[in-house]
Amino acid sequence: MSDLEKELPEIPLPKPKKKVKTKAKQSAKQAIARTRKKVAKAEQSLRSAKAHAKNVKDKLLTIDKVLDGKEQQLITQDVIEDVPENIQEHLASQNIIFKPNDGPQRDFLAASEREVFYGGARGGGKSYAMLIDPLRYCHKENHRCLLLRRTMPELRDLINHSQRLYSRAYPGAKWREQEKEWRFPSGAKIEFGYAENMTDVLRYQGQSYTWIGIDELPQYPSPDIYNFLRSSLRSVDPSIPVYMRATGNPGNVGSQWVKEMFVDPIDPNTAFNIEISTPTGIKYITRRFIPAKLQDNPYLMQTDDYYAMLSSLPEVQRKQFLNGDWDAFSNAAFSEFDRDIHVVEPFDIPKGWQRFRAADWGYSSPACCLWFAIDYDNNLWVYRELYTQKITADVFARKVIDLEHGEYIRYGVLDASTWARRGDVGPSIAETMIQAGCRWRPSDRTPRSRISGKLEIHKRLKIVNEKTNEPGIRIFSNCRNLLRTFPTLPLDDSNPEDINTHVEDHAYDALRYGCMSRPMHTSYANKAFGNSNRTTNFVPSDKIFGY
User: Fold this and answer.
1) Domains observed in the chain
2) Average model confidence (pLDDT) for the chain?
3) Looking at the chain, which terminus has fewer C-beta neighbours within 10 angstroms, N or C?
């Protein structure tokens, strides 16, 4: 460094100024952001309004063409509801061909699921709905429909009704008697046919339909015809969806398989999916069950005659035809079972109620475990189920333990046969479960235990409190497999005191073991002699196990 440089004073360099966000700048940015949000929201509302306006305009044009006779299209309720009120009033003054009843009939005609079953009580308007449903796409050329009954005389009644409806709905539609089909001005067709057996249904093999309907489906003893016809659902027009529709009443020869296919899987009026494996992957078919009641038909309810006639029928038929009860069978082992009385929605079990479980074991056949709660009047509440198949005893035990985590289960009852050693090698099934930490005691092993258990269930199903209409047992609605199999258990033809053991009776056996462990004799005696004292102390049925 030179002497001159040394003499120069050090001049400090100015520090770079930090950007300071003032309150004014922050407020401005926030205001801009708010404005942008408002603009985006307004733009979205404008787009929605334009789309709605276009939709209404299209529907108004459709209505105008139909009223002028330029187009043969069915004006449905959803079209009418979206147009201005003055147009709605004008349409209301026109000749209404068919107006669906509010409730199930309307739901059926508006359903979008691929397969829908509309069934229940007689007189609910199911057949009329079946006639109207295929008309929704009859303005399209490629719409092909097939409406079936089991026999030709039954089919004739549907044909007669169609002749009073179709030509009015679509002026220009022609009925061809020889072919048993309606042809519409657009080119659409509705074919009427019958199929009493698989030989009859083969005549429809190779045909393609966009809509197939079967009136009174439970008249068929098996699902073979229904499944065969499903393969004929095909559409070459992407604007026409394919539909399978069916109606029917309980009490016919095929009620059980129809019940299992549509009624049992889920709550009524709730769509559910059927998983299908295909070469291109997993596909889903949507199904839905729509229940029908006589009260849904205001025309039949205007007088009490039809209602009174159905009410006068024997108990089982009354439940079937008046209430649309799919659990009512003439050979049902437990005809006193009533879903309205014996099935309740789940609730939190009070801490003071004792709890226990009962199970029927199976590996190839299903294994079922039911959990019971005992209220202060010694009534039973079945509040949980485990229903599984092809799992080992130790895995089953662990599942049981996991499900009752945090609960105090007083005892467990297991099928007595599980204590037998298979070939005297190793522990028994029951011992395997106990070693896994799941405690059990054997079910009743006396010679007439099956009959005694069945009688205990009968006692529980009876109304023990006439004022409150309360039975001795109730079942939570989440116990689906018990509710699916129990109501339709048939009696054994060779031994009417017992049920037919060739059916799916695993949940029933678990129920029987549970009821046998809590007999109602004491409770019935107290009620019979006017003693209302509550007995809440637990007495073990098997003193050896102590629980």
Assistant:
1) 55-96 (no CATH), 104-321 (3.40.50.300), 339-528 (3.30.420.280)
2) 83
3) N
